[in-house]
Amino acid sequence: SSCGSCGNRCGGSCGAYSNFGNPCAPCNPYCYGSVEALYIEPDGVGRAYGRDFRVDVFDAEIGGRSTFGSVPDCVHGSEAPFVGPFDWDGSAFAADPGFGLDTHLVPGLPVAPADLSAFSNADFQTLSYRPRFWSVEANTTLVGWNMAKLLAGFRYMSYEERLVYYSQNVNQAGLLGVQTENNLIGLQVGMDLLYPICRNAYTDFRSRAGGFINLAESDVILDNAGTRVLRWSPDDTDIAGMFELSTGLRYELGQMLSVRAGVELWYLAGVAKEIGRAHV
Prior knowledge:
With 280 residues, the protein is mainly beta. The chain has strands at 30-40, 61-71, 76-87, 90-95, 124-144, 148-168, 173-198, 201-224, 227-232, 235-254, 257-269.
């Protein structure tokens, strides 16, 4: 039938877009929002600039994800999630009164062996390594029966790393500082599914995949024995990808409120990490 022949049988809500094209399905426009606490631990190797110590895997840190959206015709809508910020912090140090600490830094043009004198035969060294991540999205959505949602849209992600490596021996001090910024701009697609398991309880599945242009830049400084040896600011453009998978349990406390607990896996590929460290 056509919408014109439905009359009031749809509750006065006939629409060609209601529930994936069923013109006689009731349609009540609605808005929605969610606020989540995410407890995420990065995976991967640590950092080892000093020969005798390293920064190992970081502890998990808490960040947030806030999502607000609307569906004006029961099917087509939009939403805007914000994720983060996540701030991880790793640090380590070593001390040797016998001045036996050494370094993994290797000289190379324009850094001569004498420019790394404070990092060899040292009595104290410390390393601080701090990544940070956040993102914002703007998506269009396609919703069916309140149980499935497809989305596509724009996403911007920021991933930063700050590293400080300090060393001292009898009468010299050395400092290596590296700050790297990844600005990832691109498009993504995704899917959310709900599956009822009992009254008011559901399992869910969430997935995202995106391709991005990564505009990366870095700032590197090297000081040795009170002298600025190197100041370098390289930049690079590359292709990056972001993939997310999540599953969990959701329980409805009422018509307008639910709670959820689940697990998530993120994979971010193609980011610049400490640009230029191989040149020091």
